[in-house]
């Protein structure tokens, strides 16, 4: 049983002069092969049939499509039906239609108006000519006809095929913006719930054109209930399989324009569906010139007809709202509340192993996706680790898969008697399901108990044992959450220990770079970013801020804190976001906490002053923890010197706001960022005091020690004191002052002599999104190995400060000190680019460049004179590996390996140095610094600044640099690697990519096909 589909879109018929009207026979002929063995033949048109919705334009369309249909039927005597959906050009729009514009404005302000029948009728009046055309062109009688959709049914043997035409353009306007469309789903959703063997859905605008409030629910509805989705509008051909855990699999086909506005080929697709084999073949056609039919691409896809889940256990509207709530009132720039579904990222879990084997780390989504193997689960996590949000999201997933989950909060349970638990569970079912009686009748094997905050249950271990036993008897699967220290109680209480022995216990891990990347990416997309290049830029800017603010565990890497920081980023225009002093973000975090505890804005100044002095008191006491007696002593001193403060009230306030944390009789700052923020504030306000200045100088002289680097960084977050800048600059200049900066010119002749020529690189078609994700995952793996050293101790840090360090450690510390000093000086330049004089900025940029270049010169000192010893070491390693090579071949290989090792080290250092000053607001000064130096090293650094970030790349300038380096293989290879990095990590226009590859001897894969441009440009 086969179905043949001719997919047309974007015809834009204006008058009878249109060339496309003369190409009906050519278009129909592309369809002949498919119709010969098909039982159902459809011509599906996804909008923009007319140019401006005029009646005579539809008369042209009627004749045109009927001609195609007639030609197709002459090839095979079979019924051919035409189904259409409207596009924005199918609206007869009038800029003076004040009534409709005011109605649309009203909908944009309050989307609930979109469900009003009178509003829909008013908005769709402009489509009256289209509706008349639709009535004539389609032979089949619709099962349901509505101004917002039409539903058709076809039968092939024992199979039922449904085709749904969605009116996505019902509120289109002349100046239509991407991300602005609204579509009320309630009218079409119940029809999409009806079962069919295959459901095909037509709509003009792809999903990325809808507002975020519409996008996610509409996307989930259409993809969950449709097997194939056809669209148009963007004139870019694209197709593929969408496989999402929460909604299942569906195929999408986005059509090219049959009659494009621009001078481009006429494009359309022919789709063949084999219901028996569950296979789909797509052929993309174009007309080159006037008479030549061109097959541009042919692809095959599998069609999953195993059946979509039709959920009969509907959730209540109130509980749906709960499932969408991220747990705090976050908003986007468009002032809408953020939907949990649009930003949620499953955390990573670390398995708690009772045996000696190594603990596994994996994504939490695995647990919900494999319930057969995870029927007994306990999630542990610190406060605000995201336990509740995790199981609520798990609830949504399990419900979408046909399970009947039930969410319970331990603290809401009145008691653990069977009678009481039955009552509480029934109440929960009533609040979560529209038909609780039907829920009661669901088989136990489909039921999942999701109990939140087990440790909040009254009655201790005995009550917990009774509750878990009851849940296990009445639910097939039981998922629990508790605080991280619940494990201690488990060890103490034999009751709870025995019952939890059969549970898989997982601890929720902090968000690493990969998960932060995914969260930021979702946040940016939900904020209305539509193109991948724009997404690259926004993501890069926000990620830079978050990673810098978080630092080495300065801020908890929990979703709630990350979302608060994302919220603060939304409050800054893009220019501010790139260059804001990070003090703003730290202050935003704890100010939010303070305001939630009732602190008024006018009270913040005194409170901040109190905390500034308290942090310095902690520092002077040289301890992370202070006793209550010590804090009383500080409070008394502060009250005597400044203003009276009630100690008991103040200490409770600071603990409630997560500024301080109490451990028995001891207190500490809850998080390192709070401590460093206020110490930095104290230093900035008292830098004129000799004692403070000496302390700052000592820190700057020892920036390889993390706590010192943090003190100086937070000091610079508060002010750009010329004194501090001078001290940081002096420290950088003094470090390795006798070393000569490497120039990558004549000074590397000995390295260039290792190879005969530059190697050509091959760049396969690359998935930039996957590359971005993998690179963050690699950083996570590296940090995982160093995790034991990541704990930040505010009273001293873990680095050794002994005087008797050996020479190797001293050299390493010197290099660490140099790079950290260069980084801090670069951060000062980026933060205060607008208040430092241009000449001074150029001087400082040169120092930031020269420091790492001196380090490279020092590292390569012996190598630049004679790389022979390293080559011999590599030869010895080749021998050790048992490679049987003759002497000359072994020498050549060893030289190449030596060349590559040195190249990777050098490129890495150049790339890292560029990041120190990477800012659009410093590019003029960087250019002037490069111009005054004229060394190849500086030119490579300038190139690295451009290539280390997304956005515009001056391909011509890089091409000229590559020509300059044509006789310098080492420097050329460095530039080649930097360009390759950019192409792998950021979405780049194809022509720019092509130009860069030609200039840098990078061969592009030839497997590129027509939808590369679409994939590069658009977010699906």
What does this structure look like?
The structure is a single chain. With 1020 residues, the chain is an alpha/beta fold. It has five domains: 2-302, Purple Acid Phosphatase, chain A, domain 2 (4-Layer Sandwich), CATH 3.60.21.10; 317-509, 3-Layer(aba) Sandwich (Rossmann fold); 511-580, no CATH class; 594-706, Winged helix-like DNA-binding domain superfamily/Winged helix DNA-binding domain (Arc Repressor Mutant, subunit A); 746-1017, no CATH class. 49% of the residues lie in helices and 14% in strands. The chain contains 42 helices and 25 strands. The protein has a seven-stranded mixed sheet. A seven-stranded mixed sheet has the order 15-14-20-16-19-18-17, with helices on both faces. It has a six-stranded mixed sheet with strand order 3-2-1-11-12-13. Strand 4 (144-146) and strand 5 form a beta hairpin. Helix 18 crosses helix 19 and helix 27 crosses helix 28. The longest helix has 30 residues, at 887-916. It is globular. The model is unreliable at 572-580, 795-805 and 1006-1017 (pLDDT under 50).
What's the gist of this structure?
By secondary structure, the protein is an alpha/beta fold.
Provide the CATH architecture of the largest domain: 4-Layer Sandwich
* E-strand count: 25
Rg on CA atoms, Å: 33 Å
The top level CATH class name of the largest domain: Alpha Beta
């Amino acid at each position: 049983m086969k179905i043949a589909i001719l997919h047309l879109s974007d015809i834009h018929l204006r008058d009878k002069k249109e060339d496309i009207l003369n190409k009906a026979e050519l278009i129909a002929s592309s369809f002949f092969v498919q119709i010969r063995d098909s039982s159902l033949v459809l011509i599906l048109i996804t909008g923009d049939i007319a140019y401006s919705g005029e009646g005579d334009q539809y008369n042209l369309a009627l004749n045109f499509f009927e001609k195609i249909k007639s030609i197709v039927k002459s090839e095979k005597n079979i019924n051919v039906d035409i189904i259409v959906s409207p596009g924005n050009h199918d609206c007869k729009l009038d800029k003076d239609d004040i009534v409709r514009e005011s109605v649309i404005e009203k909908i944009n302000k309050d989307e609930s108006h979109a469900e009003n029948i009178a509003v829909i009728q008013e908005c769709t009046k402009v489509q009256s000519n289209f509706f008349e055309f639709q009535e004539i062109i389609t032979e089949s009688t619709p099962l349901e006809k509505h101004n917002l959709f039409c539903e058709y049914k076809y039968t092939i043997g024992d199979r039922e095929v449904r085709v749904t035409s969605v009116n996505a353009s019902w509120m289109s306007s002349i100046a239509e913006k991407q991300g602005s469309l609204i579509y009320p789903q309630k009218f079409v959703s119940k029809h999409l719930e009806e079962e069919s063997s295959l459901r095909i859905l037509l709509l003009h605008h792809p999903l990325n054109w809808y507002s975020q409030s519409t996008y996610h629910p509409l996307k989930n509805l259409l993809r969950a209930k449709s097997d194939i989705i056809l669209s148009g509008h963007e004139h870019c051909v694209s197709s593929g399989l969408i496989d999402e855990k929460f909604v299942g699999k569906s195929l999408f086909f986005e059509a090219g324009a049959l009659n494009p506005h621009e001078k481009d080929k006429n494009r359309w697709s022919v789709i063949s569906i084999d219901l028996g084999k569950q296979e789909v073949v797509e052929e993309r056609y174009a007309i080159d010139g006037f008479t030549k039919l061109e097959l541009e691409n042919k692809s095959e896809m599998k069609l999953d007809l195993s059946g979509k889940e039709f959920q009969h256990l509907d959730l209540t509207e109130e509980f749906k709202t709960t499932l969408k709530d991220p747990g705090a009132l976050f908003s986007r720039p468009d002032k809408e509340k953020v939907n949990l579904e649009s930003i949620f990222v499953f955390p990573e879990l670390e398995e708690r192993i009772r045996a000696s084997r190594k603990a596994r780390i994996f994504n939490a989504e695995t647990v919900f996706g494999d319930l057969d193997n995870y029927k007994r689960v306990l999630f542990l996590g610190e406060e605000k680790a995201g336990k509740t949000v995790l199981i609520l999201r798990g609830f949504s997933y399990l419900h979408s898969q046909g399970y009947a989950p039930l969410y319970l909060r331990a603290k809401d349970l009145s008691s653990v008697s069977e009678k009481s638990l039955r009552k509480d569970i029934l109440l929960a079912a009533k609040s979560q399901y529209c038909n609780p009686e039907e829920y009661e009748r669901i088989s136990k094997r489909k039921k999942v108990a999701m109990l939140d905050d087990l440790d909040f249950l009254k009655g201790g271990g005995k009550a917990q044992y009774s509750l878990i036993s009851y849940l296990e008897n009445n639910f097939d699967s039981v998922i629990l959450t508790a605080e991280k220290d619940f494990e201690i109680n488990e060890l103490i209480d034999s009751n709870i220990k025995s019952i939890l022995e059969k549970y898989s216990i997982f601890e929720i891990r902090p968000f690493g770079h990969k998960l932060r990347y995914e969260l930021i990416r979702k946040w940016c997309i939900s904020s209305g970013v539509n193109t991948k290049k724009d997404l690259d830029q926004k993501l890069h800017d926000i990620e830079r801020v978050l990673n810098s603010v978080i630092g080495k565990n300065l801020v908890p890497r929990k979703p709630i804190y990350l979302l608060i920081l994302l919220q603060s980023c939304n409050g800054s225009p893009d220019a501010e976001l790139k260059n804001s002093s990070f003090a703003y973000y730290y202050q935003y975090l704890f100010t939010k906490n303070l305001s939630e505890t009732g602190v008024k804005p006018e009270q913040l100044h005194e409170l901040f002053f109190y905390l500034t002095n308290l942090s310095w008191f902690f520092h002077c006491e040289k301890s992370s923890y202070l006793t209550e007696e010590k804090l009383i002593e500080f409070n008394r001193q502060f009250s005597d010197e400044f203003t009276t403060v009630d100690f008991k009230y103040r200490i409770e306030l600071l603990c409630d706001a997560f500024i301080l944390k109490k451990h028995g009789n001891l207190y500490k700052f809850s998080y390192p960022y709070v401590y460093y923020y206020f110490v930095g504030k104290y230093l900035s306000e008292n830098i004129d005091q000799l004692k403070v200045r000496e302390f700052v100088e000592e820190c700057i002289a020892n920036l390889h020690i993390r706590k010192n680097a943090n003190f100086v960084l937070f000091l610079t977050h508060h002010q750009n004191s010329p004194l501090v800048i001078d001290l940081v600059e002096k420290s950088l200049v003094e470090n390795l002052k006798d070393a000569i900066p490497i120039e990558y010119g004549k000074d590397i002749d000995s390295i260039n002599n290792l190879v005969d020529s530059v190697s050509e690189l091959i760049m396969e078609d690359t998935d930039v999104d996957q590359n971005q994700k993998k690179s963050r995952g690699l950083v996570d793996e590296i940090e995982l190995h160093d995790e034991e050293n990541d704990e930040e101790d505010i009273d001293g840090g873990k680095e050794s400060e002994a005087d008797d360090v050996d020479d190797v450690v001293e050299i390493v510390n010197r290099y660490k000190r140099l790079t950290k000093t260069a980084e801090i000086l670069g951060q000062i330049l980026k933060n205060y680019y607008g208040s430092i004089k241009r000449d001074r900025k150029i001087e400082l940029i040169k120092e930031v460049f020269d420091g790492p270049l001196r380090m490279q010169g020092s590292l390569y000192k012996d190598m630049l004179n004679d790389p022979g010893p390293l080559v011999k070491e590599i030869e010895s390693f080749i021998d050790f590996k048992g490679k049987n090579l003759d002497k000359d071949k072994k020498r050549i290989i060893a030289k190449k390996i030596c060349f590559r090792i040195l190249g990777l080290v050098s490129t890495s250092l150049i790339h890292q140095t560029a990041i120190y000053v990477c800012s659009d607001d410093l590019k003029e000064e960087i250019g002037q610094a490069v111009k005054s130096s004229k060394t190849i090293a500086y030119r490579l650094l300038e190139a690295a600044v451009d290539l280390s970030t997304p956005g515009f790349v001056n391909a011509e300038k890089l091409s000229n640099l590559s020509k300059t380096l044509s006789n310098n293989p080492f420097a050329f290879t460095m530039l080649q690697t930097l360009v390759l990095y950019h192409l792998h990590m950021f979405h780049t226009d194809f022509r720019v990519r092509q130009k860069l590859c030609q200039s840098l001897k990078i061969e592009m894969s030839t497997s590129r096909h027509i939808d590369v441009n679409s994939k590069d440009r658009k977010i699906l």
